[in-house]
Amino acid sequence: MSEGPTYGFDTLQVHAGARPDPATGARQTPIYQTTAYVFRDADHAAALFNLQEVGYIYSRLTNPTVAVLAERIATLEGGVGGVCCSSGHAAQIMALFPLMGPGRNIVASTRLYGGTVTQFSQTIRRFGWSAKFVDFDDLDAVKAAIDDDTRAIFCEAIANPGGYITDLDAIAGVADAAGLPLIVDNTSATPYLCRPIDHGATLVVHSTTKYLTGNGTVTGGAIVDSGRFDWSASGKFPSLAEPEPAYHGLKFHETFGPLAFTFHGIAVGLRDLGMTMNPQAAHYTLMGIETLSLRMERHTENAVKVASWLETHPKVAAVTYAGLPSSPWHDRVARICPKGAGGLFTFALKDGYEACVKLVDSVNLFSHVANLGDTRSLIIHSASTTHRQLSEAQQVAAGAAPNVVRLSIGIEDADDLIADLDQALAKV
Ligand SMILES: *Cc1c(COP(=O)(O)O)cnc(C)c1O
């Protein structure tokens, strides 16, 4: 699809990366349910193992179904290459792995998915890596947090929950000035609403578990490379710029140019970390992506309707959604995510923790689950579930105060969603 006309987003979400199966003509991308691939001969096998020829060896590294998905996501994001992996959290580790080493750190936004805060504040320390969390609206604080050991800047385009939109252009400016890659988690926005690479991001990571698959069936992740970062300029990224002992001294950046990060992700990351996406999961996600724009339009339209209604409800203290004019980040929507602020938001009840518990127990159409980005509408009271191990002060800082409920608005009829919340709020 790289030659010929430039297609629009709706065309690319159906076609990018795919072509009729060369062996059978199958129009839909087959699920290549195979572990290994037969070599033409011993020379072919040797060339593949030396990375002198691109092809399939073993499905921990590459699989044709997964490859279609990687190319589709990379195309939709405007990147040069992509790597799929087993979950969004795997994608984050895979994105950091080539950049980091013991003693190195990342500067990360305080406004992140709860699981990412845990991964960055606790688990990565076992690799000798660390994260400094900073308010990304305070550019001086972001600059001040960067030191000689910093190897990346990390944020979410639309942060989950809290209804926050990162000023990606401003943060990319800080990252550029420091000679560091900017990694943007684009899970909540999806490339339909926001394309971080157009705002200066180096790498984009996804939990494909959410909107890209879209119906709560499989977990997966992806990393997309813009192909624009010079990994050799600073001497800070030896995994990409210097000879790789596991490939007879091959230098990824010198050899693969803008595809260095993608090739390293497959040839070293997937090979040795093994966080591989399976072809069944890739199939489900490919099915989902075909309707991404249609779903995101409805998610967003419904979210605006439900959030506007909630804002006028007497039992509601506040609604936190960048799609509403009341949001302090509303003016960033037009620039960062011009097609809307997405389907996720939180709201606070005047009556506190017990009222929230009663609400989640009283809904019928909404499902009380720890997930987001499903065609179904979902609800969760973070303080009694995902954030219950945190102190109240930590809950408040995370946008998950005891009186806050998070909604992931689905693609049902907005009137039915409002009616369900109305009857549940009446019981509170
Ligand atoms: C869910 C999520 C993740 C983690 O993805 P998994 O697929 O659950 O591992 C990371 N970032 C954001 C914004 C998410 O919503």
UniProtKB/TrEMBL annotation:
A single Gene Ontology CC term: cytoplasm
Annotated Pfam families: Cys_Met_Meta_PP
Modified positions (N6-(pyridoxal phosphate)lysine) in chain numbering: K210
Keywords: Pyridoxal phosphate, Transferase
Cofactor: pyridoxal 5'-phosphate
GO molecular function: cysteine synthase activity; O-acetylhomoserine aminocarboxypropyltransferase activity; pyridoxal phosphate binding
BP terms from Gene Ontology: cysteine biosynthetic process from serine; L-homocysteine biosynthetic process; transsulfuration
Annotated signal sequence range: none
Similarity section: Belongs to the trans-sulfuration enzymes family.
Name of the protein in its database record: O-acetylhomoserine sulfhydrylase
Organism: Rhodovulum marinum
